[in-house]
Fold this protein.
Amino acid sequence: MIESYLLKNIAGYIDGQWIAQADSGKTTEVFNPANGKTLAETPYMGTDETRRAIAAAKAARDTVPDVATRRGWLEDCYEALTAEKEEIGRILCLEHGKPWAEAQGEVDYAASFFSYFAGMMEDTLAPETLLEQAKDCRWTVHKRPIGVAGLITPWNFPIGMIAKKVAPALAAGCPLVIKPAAETPLTMIAMFQLLHERLDLPKGMINLVMGSSKEIGGEIMSSFDVPMISFTGSTEVGQLLVEQSSQHVKKLGLELGGNAPFIVLDDADLESAADNLIANKFRGAGQTCVCANRIFVQDGVYDEFVNKVVERVKKLKVGDGMDENTDVGPLINAAGFDKVHDHVKDALSKGASLVAGKHPDELDSGKNLFYTPTVVSDVTHDMKCCQEETFGPLLPLIRFETDAQALEMANDTQFGLASYVFGRDKERAHKLIGKLHFGHCGYNTGTGPAAHAPFGGFLHSGIGREGGVEGLMEFVESQTVPDGS
Ligand code: NAP
């Protein structure tokens, strides 16, 4: 079992109280994916706890203090996360599996959303008097909190994904009902412990429920008192939430799946492209929404690039994230492992070549969750690894001849989250970037989102943006006040 001074309570949190036991008396086991050992048992909550959490949040709406006080919350939160990044990173590493250093990097990333929104919120939320004075009135636009927000997050960034939502929501003045993923609730509980101890939040301002996703999600979606949902996770669940949102015309922020193209043009700096690809692809063992899923390489540099990639992949160390030599940790669960396995088998059966990693027959999917980083070349667009998000350490290489061909293949997906283009000729690269249907496009960099920039997807990758001014506006309603006095 996990021991941590940030996990004094392995519990939900409703109306300012820790709730260690679910009404049902049931619990969920949380495992360390590196060794299969149980870390903790969390309460398995459902409809009734969620109803109480919503009621507490609704009651807190009228106690939300002014913007200066809320800025203080964000600053305190930034300081708490920064001060505790080693311990939060350790908890995150144990329940998720990513290397401890990488987990601490995620805590820094989470903290950056609190400092960014703290720095811009007062100006951004200030009422604006319009220059136009139509109908003999003085028009002012106020930015009001949207109300209680339901926040639902995935396991792949246990603190990064919630920070992107909590920071702007508290900045805007929205009370919250939060549901973490079943696999990684402990990092969230640790964050709640910090918020409980170090912030003077009104009772009911933040609530944490965990357990039945169907019941918790169902209750949040069917409640008139929760006008906004911000969800990060799979497109399948996002689509369900879209259906469920119609009854109360809820505002939805959806950060969904990806299928990122990584395009290497024949004038690219191949060393840099290969370094960026490795860093981008194997972060979180390939379990990130922004990681390259399809690598398109131009014919003239294809063989040279494949060699550079293979050389680097063979050096990656797979192991327990708490071992400082580990580059790539385990996958989150057996379903995740089996999906990668299936994509590799499918690609090889359709004519791709294995150029790094183990043949699928050598891997025993029942034994553990460590998947050897794998590279397959001569991949074609009909293979599963091109059609679906693999979400694991599989790097498929696809050859192309012309820029138009790369563009057509890259856009041939219902997803539109992250994309990358590498090439020295800026004008040529930007011609491609302008036509890529993706919300994020790294040019000569594999870097992902940052707090100050709006991030989100086109098409089936989502609705709305996180980060930047847009990320704050997700939690705000504009109220126009024409003053005729
Ligand atoms: P998931 O299965 O959709 O789960 C996400 C969250 O939704 C979890 O908390 C889950 O709870 C909950 N959930 C499941 N069914 C629900 C329902 N019927 N109603 C309400 N909530 C429900 O996704 P995941 O496997 O955790 O995450 C991986 C996916 O997230 C990938 O597709 C990835 O690309 C995407 N992602 C996108 C972004 C982005 O910024 N666009 C960032 C990170 C991840 P339980 O865990 O309790 O089932």
